[in-house]
Design goal:
single chain; 278 residues; alpha+beta; Rossmann fold; Hypothetical Protein Tm841, Chain: A,domain 3; six-stranded mixed sheet; two-stranded parallel sheet; 8 helices
Length: 278
C-alpha cells in the first residue's frame, strides 16, 4: 500500500498485515530498494496496490524500484477504485494470500474482485469532482446551500442528488464500510445501507487520499463488498487459469497481474495447454 489509511484491520486472525510503501519525501530511494529486497526475500512476491490518484512522483518511485530490482515478482496494480474501495480490495487480497493460490493468480484476481466492490461517496459538492461524469445541471446544483450528492464510482458511474433518486446497489449480499470526512450526514447509514439491504455496516478512518480523489473534504466515503472469504475463494477458483507467455506465472483473466503482459489469443499459443489447479 502507498498510505497507512489504505490498510484496514483484518477481519480474522488469519489475514496477514500489509506493508506501506512510503512516498519519496519520506524515504531515500536506496532505503526503499533495500526494504523491497527484504520483502522479496521474506515472502517471495510483493503485490503493491495503489489508487490512481497518488502523486506522480510516488508512482514513479514504485516503477523505479521494480526496474532496479529487475523483478517479475513485484506486481504494481494501479486501481481505478476510490481510496476506501482500494483498501477493501487490498484486504481481500490479503485474505486470499493465505489460500492455495499462486502469486500470479492473486495479483490478477484484483481486477476480478474490483467488479464486486460498489464504491462511492456522499458529497456536499461535485464542482471539483473529475473521477465521475458530472452534468452541468449537477454542477449548478452544487451551489445551492444544503445540496448533497450520492456518487458511485464503481462498478458503473452514477450520480444522484440526495432526495431525488437512488443509487443502484449490488444484487448480492454485502457488508458496507464507510468513512467520515467533514460531514455528519446519516444518509449513508440511514438510507443507503437499508436500501442496499446490506448485512452489516462498519466504520473506518477516512484515507488521507480521499479528499483529493473526490475533490472535497466534505464527504462520507463508502464501499459495499463481499465479506465472506469462502465466497471470494470460490469466485477466484471458478475462473480458468492460464500461464503467462512472458513471465511464466499463472494468471486469470486476460492480463498477467505480475508483469502486466496481455494473454495471447488462443491461436497464437504454442501448445494450447490450460493450467488448472484442484
Amino acid at each position: 500500500m502507498t498510505g497507512p489509511g489504505l490498510v484496514l484491520p483484518p477481519q480474522d486472525q488469519q489475514t496477514p498485515p500489509a506493508v506501506v510503501l512510503r512516498a519519496p519525501g519520506e524515504q531515500p530511494l536506496d532505503q526503499a530498494i533495500g526494504d523491497m529486497q527484504i520483502l522479496l526475500e521474506q515472502h517471495g512476491y510483493v503485490i503493491a496496490v495503489y489508487p490512481a490518484g497518488i502523486p506522480a512522483a510516488h508512482e514513479r518511485r514504485l516503477h523505479t524500484i521494480r526496474s532496479v530490482l529487475e523483478s517479475d515478482r513485484i506486481a504494481l496494480l494501479r486501481s481505478p477504485l476510490p481510496p476506501l474501495g482500494v483498501a477493501v480490495l487490498v484486504r481481500q487480497l490479503r485474505q486470499l494470500s493465505v489460500c492455495d493460490f499462486s502469486a500470479g493468480v492473486i495479483a490478477s484476481a484484483a481486477r476480478l474482485l474490483s467488479h464486486y466492490i460498489h464504491a462511492g461517496a456522499l458529497l456536499n459538492s461535485v464542482t471539483r469532482l473529475d473521477r465521475v461524469p458530472v452534468t452541468l445541471k449537477a454542477h449548478a446544483k452544487s451551489w445551492v446551500p444544503g445540496s448533497q450528492f450520492g456518487v458511485l464510482a464503481n462498478p458503473e458511474p452514477q450520480l444522484i442528488r440526495v432526495g431525488t433518486g437512488e443509487l443502484a446497489g449490488p444484487g448480492f449480499a454485502t457488508h458496507l464500510l464507510f468513512a467520515r470526512g467533514q460531514s455528519q450526514s446519516e444518509w449513508v447509514t440511514g438510507t443507503l445501507a437499508p436500501g442496499w439491504q446490506v448485512q452489516a455496516v462498519h466504520e473506518a478512518a477516512l484515507p488521507e487520499e480521499s479528499p483529493g480523489w473526490w475533490g472535497t473534504s466534505k464527504l462520507i466515503e463508502f464501499a459495499a463488498f463481499l465479506p465472506d472469504i469462502s465466497l471470494i475463494y470460490q469466485l477466484v477458483s471458478s475462473v480458468r487459469r492460464e500461464v503467462c507467455a512472458w513471465c511464466g506465472n499463472e494468471l486469470i483473466g486476460d492480463r498477467c497481474g505480475l508483469c502486466n503482459a496481455p494473454l495471447k489469443p488462443p491461436e497464437t499459443r504454442s501448445n494450447g495447454a490450460v493450467v488448472l489447479r484442484s
